[in-house]
Amino acid sequence: MYEIKEIKTTPFDDQKPGTSGLRKPVTTFQQPHYLENFIQSIFDSMDGGVKGKALVVGGDGRFYNRRAIQVIIKMAAANGARLLKIGQNGLLSTPAVSHIIRKYRLYGGIILSASHNPGGPNGDFGVKYNIQNGGPAPEKVTAKIYQKSLEIRRYFIAKGPDIDLQAKGAETKILDTVIEIIDPVDDYAQLMEELFDFDSIRDMIRSGFTMVYDALHAVTGIYAREIFVRRLGAPEKSLRNCDPLPDFGGGHPDPNLKYAAALVREMFSDKAPDFGAASDGDGDRNMILGRHFFVTPSDSLAIIAANVSCAPGYRNRLRGVARSMPTSRAVDHVAEDLGIPCFETPTGWKFFGNLLDAGKITICGEESFGTGSDHIREKDGIWAVLFWLNMLADKRIPVARLVKKHWLKYGRNYYTRHDYEEVDSDAAHKVMKGLEDRLESLRNADFHGRKVVTADNFCYQDPVDGSKSCNQGIRIIFGDGSRIIYRLSGTGTKGATIRIYIEGYTSKKELMEQDTQSFLSELIRLSRTLSKIEELTGRKEPSVIT
Ligand code: G1P
Ligand code: ZN
Question: Which ligand is nearest to the CA of 286?
Fold first, then answer.
């Protein structure tokens, strides 16, 4: 029924995978041979090709997901793959893919997602390749894929009927390749039951604790229904936007104060439940809210680290923690108190991979709504939500109380991120270059009693393999514990995005409940004058403040 075709093609020059794979507008992927070239390049980058290997494939349900899966199935078969595990209806979250690779010891996985970018025919699409340890392909692998994409002259595809993606449990064969349609949630939900105290959470929910979870019409909807409703007993009405849609209902599936506005409004209303959370397109990000309270991702990381033993899967096994450089130093205080190492890595989850593989850290996170642990090799949205539910079930206090108690013990790291999106690329590079040129003169400078103790461009040396990653962001660190960080985004698809991260610290009780933007106002002003951002970009204000 199926026949192998060798198709002649020519290279595209724009298939260099970034930190989160190849992310482009859907219209780019719709060009003839575009997807096929990239998939063949992934296969060609493997030792001996994909022949005889087992992969898992799934995506966040966005437009083009199903079509791409059919292409990948037929190409993997034509290239001689041994086994493909495919999420039912083409769905699998990024964390679930990471887990399935590890659990079944597969060679790797392909995730179809552009994460939190909008979807639909005019939105974005993406292909991400994860390797054997369950994590995103490291630079040496993505470089090889890119190289193959520049040399490609042919790809192989099986011609024949599409596979039924709905028939869960079904096993079919195309040529020599077994195609298994798997339940996208089951393996993942089982892992969560091993890590967290489901009985205690169920008990809390039964005793009247209320929650809402917003999947923003993306992939975590199916995970939330199975885990929060079916396994933990939350009522169906706790779920918001939990049916995945190809265009995410026209929204931007990013769990932050701007794009999850409806959830935020509900959590700050009179009818607010005890707990609220959301996740992004492919399920690796999370946002945590309490009644009338927003938990910053940096605080969430620190609080999880400080209360790690609430969760059975983590009792007595916190080896170390890690945060990305721009993430607030809240978790550093916890690590210091516990006497465990705290690593500072460049932005991007892949830098945690080596530390996790080497057993140096157990918990890690980023300010950009990413939190995770050594259970997989990706950040994990639903995991973070369950960690919070587990802590709350253990302590039986409101979210806001838990956070404020944490601040009283460790001090509060006020934190905000100001993003300048779609800035002219030349102007953005001028901002960074200007800062770089001024670093020398900033060292030991004093701004109204705030003395600069470090002014540099962050350079990371991986403690496991010794590799160096430099040029990771400008850091200006002051003697009083405050910091201003500047970096250019590596994930935007239009123009350049400048991110300015501003952090201040207090251990004074009377200063702990201030408004973040006002507490940081002086540093915010300084961050703008030091970078000459208005002069160089014409922007008076950031486009997003988190
Ligand atoms: C952003 C976040 C970063 C995260 C990445 C992928 O990257 O800032 O923390 O790892 O998305 O989710 P950026 O656009 O800043 O390069
Ligand atoms: Zn994501």
Answer: 2
SS (H, E, C) 404-467: HHHHHHHCEEEEEEEEEEEECHHHHHHHHHHHHHHHHHHCCCEECCEEEEEEEECCEECCCCCC
- Looking at residue 399, its amino acid is V
Quick check: helix, strand or coil at residue 265? helix
pTM of the complete model = 0.94
Q: Is the pLDDT of residue 493 over 70?
A: no
**What's the chain's length in residues?**
546
Burial class (CB in 10 A: 0-12, 13-18, 19+), 475: buried
List, chain by chain if needed, residues with CB within 6 Å of any ligand 1 atom. Answer: 20, 115, 324, 347-349, 366, 368, 370, 489-491, 499
Superfamily covering domain 412-545: Alpha-D-phosphohexomutase, C-terminal domain (3.30.310.50)
Q: Which long-range contacts (CB under 8 A, 24 or more apart) does 315-318 make?
A: 317/362, 318/362, 318/363
Of 113, 115, 279, 531, the active-site residue reads 115
Q: CATH code for 188-410?
A: 3.40.120.10
Integer Cα distance of 478 and 530 in angstroms? 14
What residue has token string 């806001």?
400
Question: At the fourth CATH level, which superfamily is domain 3-184?
Answer: Alpha-D-Glucose-1,6-Bisphosphate, subunit A, domain 3 (3.40.120.10)
Q: How many CA atoms within 13 Å lie on the side-chain side of 13? A: 0
The dihedrals phi and psi of 330, each to the nearest 5 degrees, come to -55, -40
* Residue 202: burial class (beta carbons within 10 Å; 0-12, 13-18, 19+): middle
CA nearest ligand 1 atom 13, residue: 489
**Selection from 399, 209, 418, 210 nearest residue 294 by Cα:** 399
Under DSSP, the state recorded for 249 is G
- 115 Cα nearest atom in ligand 1: 12
Same fold, 3-184 and 412-545: no
| C-alpha span between 240 and 221 (Å, rounded) | 8
Phi, then psi, of 400 in degrees rounded to 5: -60, -40
Query: What is the pLDDT confidence band of residue 92, given thresholds at 50, 70 and 90?
Result: very high
Per-residue tokens: 337: 């108190």
pLDDT, tens only, 228-260 = 999 999 999 999 999 999 999 998 999 988 899
Any idea where the domains of the chain sit in the sequence?
3-184, 188-410, 412-545
* Environment class of 477 (CB within 10 Å of its CB; exposed 0-12, middle 13-18, buried 19+): middle
Ligand with an atom nearest the CA of residue 367:
1
- State how far the Cα of 341 lies from the Cα of 362, in Å rounded to an integer: 11
